[in-house]
Amino acid sequence: MSSDREIELKFLVPHASRKALVAEMARASASLERRTLAAMYLDTPDRRLASEGIAWRLRREGRRWVQTLKAARANALERFEHEVLRPDASTDASLHAGTPVGDRLLKILRKAEAAGEFAGVRYRTEVRRTLRRVRTRGAVVEVAFDEGRIIAGPRPGPEETAAGPPEAPLRLCEIEFELVSGSPLAMLELAERWRKRFGLILDPRTKAERGDRLADGLRFPAVRKGRSPAYPGDAAVLDAFCAVLDECLDQIGRNAIGLVDGDPELRVEHVHQMRVGIRRLRSGLRSFRGWVPAPPPPLVDGLRALFDTLGLSRDADVLDAGVAAALAEAGAPPLEARAVGTPAPDPREAVASAAVQQLMLAWLSWRVGLVEETLPGDAAPDTAVADCKPFPLQAERRLRRWHRAIADAAKAFDSLDDTALHALRKRIKRQRYAAEFFAPVLKAGALARYLKRLAGVQDRMGELNDLVVARERYQAMVADDPAAWFALGWLAARIAELKGLARPELERLARTQPAARSQSSIR
């Protein structure tokens, strides 16, 4: 029994929807199947497999044992999977040899054993699974409703039990849609219907990821920061664009589940990184504009609205936690008035809303449609632009053109008003993200120098923008509380100070040339 690819999508099931979902699963008595699954996930004590994105498990399914190797692939739907039957609860890594991930597994285990590290059970799962096969237009989909728990460590023996209580298990209540045959788009359409009906929450985490964190005593999703997209230097422009999309959507999705099912103390950082992911995605669309299909306008508009909604929450956090603390340290009198305007929404409720969940699934569907025969929307790439010159050359020219706009604004820095400063800040962010997106086809050394300059100026301009936003909030308080004048005076001085620091950094950036094409991309 073997396979090397699975296409699936997972959702968190809200407690209020459980009863209705159980009833819906029971409707299909002909294809209904119930299983009790007990799995052991193996890794070395220093997490060598998890750090490589590999999950290796042995699972008892009724009377049989199945050994499975899994690994993430680039996009949110696809995963490598290779399964073999076992006669008992023993493992044999060599049975995965000959597959790309299996060969990596064997290499990792050999190195670990040479260092005295041996694979053992790191965490376990106990799951009651209800399976139902659904035939929909264009696909056959297996719907799996899982309830159970994740348990850190192997089954405790007498010595472990005496050592103290183990980490409390994590409860599971989730539903998966796995493509058996047909179109991934058809599977996504089915998932959207179920999402809408039962209020499901998109969840990119695997059981292996959650178990690995639990084994380290971490019960909540990690804050997901941006990473460089990976694609070969000779990749076609559409393949490069898909890699950028996958990276940005993953950052957005993982911080979204962090807001919905995460640690409240990390809320501010999840909001920030989700906004960063949205900004990177919008920058990616701009970076590849004219070379690849454009998404339908409702997807872009929805993304912009979500960004603005989360921005209200972040502005409030900056004012309450950042500027207010600095003012208190500077001796500012306490304020009695509250800022007027739109109250900051609860970011958890916003992300869990039907509108945002529909938007996130729609973006995944559009991404899948890029490699299908039919593209959603009516936008097609400008082939006259995309085909006449190689992608690396186009990327280099675009970076240089955008850099000239930044350099021109830097020359007029002292005369820029708040609106122009905000526009310059956005240009710098877009340039940094574009350089990161084009990195595989650019010279690494020159790119690193350029990115370092961009990052420094971006941080400075971001701090300046936070103070400008705070100034607007405190100006709204002056009529009701004269103590706000102290804040405005402090902010004016701090803004002037930061502008003085930003000016030479911008001048150095303006003199730095964007990275050129790498030799491999030229060939």
Secondary structure topology:
Layout lengths: L5 E7 L5 H9 L6 E11 L4 H4 L2 E8 L2 E9 L5 E9 L13 H15 L5 E17 L2 E14 L5 H6 L6 E13 L1 H15 L2 E2 L4 H9 L21 H25 L5 H21 L9 H33 L17 H6 L1 H16 L13 H4 L4 H21 L6 H20 L6 H32 L8 H28 L7 H4 L1
Antiparallel strand pairs: 1-5, 1-8, 1-9, 2-3, 2-6, 3-4, 4-5, 6-7, 7-8
Helix pairs in contact: 5-11, 7-8, 7-11, 8-9, 8-14, 9-11, 9-15, 13-14, 13-16, 14-15, 15-16
Percent of residues in helical segments? 40-55%
Instruction: Give the strand content.
Output: 15-25%
| End-to-end separation | 42 Å
Using DSSP, what is the number of strands?
Answer: 9
Mean pLDDT, nearest integer? 89
Radius of gyration: 26 Å
Helical stretch count?
17
| Poorly predicted runs | 373-387
Structural class call reads alpha+beta
Order of helices and strands: EHEHEEEHEEHEHEHHHHHHHHHHHH
